[in-house]
Structures are given as C-alpha cells and as structure tokens.
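Slide 14.
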Amino acid sequence: MKKLAPLALLLAAAGASAQSHLDKVTQQKQLEVCTTGDYKPYTFLPEKGGYEGIDIEMAQSLAKSLGAEVKWVKTSWKTLVQDFNAGKCDIAMGGISVTLERQKQAFFAEKLDTDGKIPLVRCSDVKKYRTIAQINKPSVRVIEPAGGTNEAFARAHLPKAKLTLSHDNMGIFQQLVDRKADVMITDASEALYQQKRYPKLCAVNPKKPMQYGEKAYMLPRDDLSWKLYVDQWLHLTKASGEYQKIIDKWLAVKK
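Slide 15: predicted structure.
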C-alpha cells in the first residue's frame, strides 16, 4: 500500500470529519461572521447603521463568492475564541492578530498583513514614551481594551505601569486626548488610522514595532476544505486588486 502524502492525509481526514463549513455555507446561503465592531479601520458598528470597515467589506466579498448573505455575530475581544469555538460563526474577521494561544484552538487563513505593537500617545509626549523602559513605570497610565492581544502585551511587558482596562475600545482615544491616560499599546495599523482622526495623538515608531505581529481571519480548526477555499478566495482578491482597493478606501477616509 502506497503511503499518502501529508496533504492527502489531511484531506482524507477532513473528508471523514463532520460537514465542512464550506458545504454548510453554500447550502444554507448564509455566512456567519464573528466580529467585535470596535476596531477601526477593520470593523466598526456605529450607533446608527450597520457594520463597516475593511474586514466588513471583505466578509461581504467572501459571502458573494459563495452565493451567500452575511449574518453578523457580535463578539468581544475577551470572548472571541469562546464564541468562535461555541460554533457561533463560520469565520472571525476584524483585525484579528495571530497568536499561538489562538492557534491552539483554531485555524487561521493565510496572513493578510504584518503588523506590530507600538505606543499611541499624545503628540506632546512622543519623546517620553518611546520604549518599554520609559513606559514601564508606576507613574505611567496605560489603557487597553479588555481582552485581546493589547492587554496581553501590557501585562507581559509593562507590569510596573498602571494598567486600566476599558470595555469601550472606541472611547480610549478621547481618554488619551483628555489626559485621563498616557499610553495605549496597539497595532501600528490602528495607531496610524486613529492619529488621522485625533490630531493630538501620534503613533510612535510605527515602522519599528515593539513586537512583531500578523493579522489573519480565524477559521474552525481541522476544517481543511474551508481553509483552502478561504485561502484561495483571499489570494484571488489580492491578485485582482480588490483587497488593495478596500484598504485604500478606508485608510483614505477622514472622519
């Protein structure tokens, strides 16, 4: 008996498992998408109106390729993996960072972009908060969304700083402006986006992040058929220029 190649073994295992999300979505014509709705420019839910952002438009593109409609599933950074593994959605989208802890419980599609953690501070304080050593002091007030990789970074690298967790991610930026906090550690992409909307805030060293990171869409673990489809769809949206057009549209918006 010939030995099967590793990919063939994976495909055989996938075929023997439960129904793929690929079949589920195409049959039910509904793509269930977990997203937080609080992370511009990737995902945002205004008080009035529906979801918007880079990954919201990408989710709609994915659904269209499958002949399906999107059903949004509201989650939070703290409950993202829990909600995902409870079977509430087919895919999680919205500026999600790839981590080994998340990888233990889920698949990730091919990476979207590289990113990294940097400080977002008042422009007048840029020289004060350039390094971990400068920020990791009891006198420095760090503010982060509850749950997620920003909080994890702060707890791991800034144990001496005064850490405040917020359940209102979008309100953090005004708190920095109002001097109710000094530093937010976040992904360079978010910091660069928000400094355009809050002229008093500056992204510190966005080209030299404190920690390397990647962003990707989260997929159910062990569903290889679904992962291969999403990877191919993503490859084609990048090759056709569709992905870049969506990126350019949102990064050029001024609100």
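Speaker note: The first helix runs from residue 6 to 16.
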